[in-house]
Amino acid sequence: MAQISVIVPVYQVEAYLPQCIDSILAQTFRDFELILVDDGSPDESGRICDEWAETHPNARVIHQQNQGLSGA
Prior knowledge:
alpha/beta, 3 helices
């Protein structure tokens, strides 16, 4: 089990999401899990999250209907 969980709420950020994920995964501390919460984003953010999770074993995606920032 990872020592730290990094939770990133995702909603309409397809232009910034790859840079955000890159930045998190580039950390020297490796014992963490990255949880990307797709909050029902109508853009391509959910697909981008899925692509990253397929190639990075410490990243996973949760897809949900839009619940706002506190729900994500």
